[in-house]
Amino acid sequence: MTYGQRELGPRHYREDIGRSFEDFVVGDRYEHRPGRTVLDADNTWFTLLTMNTHPLHFDAAYAARTEFGRPVVNSLLTLAIVTGQSVSDVSQKAIANLGWGEIRLSAPVFVGDTLYAESEVLSARESRSRPSQGLVEVRTTGRNQDGTVVITFTRTVLVPKRGHEVEA
Predict the structure, then answer these.
(1) What is d(CA 128, CA 126) in angstroms, rounded to the nearest whole number?
(2) SS3 state at 15
(3) What is the DSSP string of 104-129?
(4) Which domains does the chain have, with CATH numbers?
(5) How far is residue 26's CA from residue 33's CA, in Å, rounded to a whole number?
(6) In angstroms, how far is CA 67 from the centroid of its own chain?
């Protein structure tokens, strides 16, 4: 994450987090921290809020009879957490998320797992229709506490060029 501060006046500063378009270099990798341990409440609430009725996510007796032997964390919660972990490095200053692609769930996530994420810049180009902005594509990988890859995806964000950011 690009971190800094802007002086607003004498001995008065404002924290400045995130990257402008010019800060993205193809091939750069960002390890996102802190990690995030998935709690039972996270999985239960997310599953119920999104109206996902599959018992694998919230019925322990049902899940015990599956190949997993216990409830599996809702895959969209995994996507949301790993995306969230990348925000301060990738999209803190973004104007919009333009899309996710190539989402692969390579291993299950269970309550109690701790997720860590890393993103690599795949492309960065100036917008053809918005001269003060650029498009950045990253590939994000989520791993559990054992280093097992649990999710990978690409994400494209619209990012302002330096000097065109909206102040928080």
Answers:
(1) 6
(2) strand
(3) E--S---TT-EEEEEEEEEEEEE-SS
(4) 3-39+75-160 (3.10.129.10)
(5) 21
(6) 28
Q: What is the pLDDT of residue 1?
A: 56
Mean pLDDT of the residues in the chain:
94
Q: What is the pTM for the complete model shown?
A: 0.92
Would you state the structure tokens that stand for residue 61, as one six-digit string? 């007796």
Q: Using an 8 Å Cβ cutoff, are 49 and 59 in contact? A: no
pLDDT tens-digit readout, 79-115: 999 999 999 999 999 999 999 999 999 999 999 999 9
Q: What pLDDT, on the 0 to 100 scale, is given for residue 154?
A: 98
Residue type at 111?
A: V
Place of tokens 């895959």: 75
> Is 146 in contact with 155 (CB distance < 8 Å)?
no
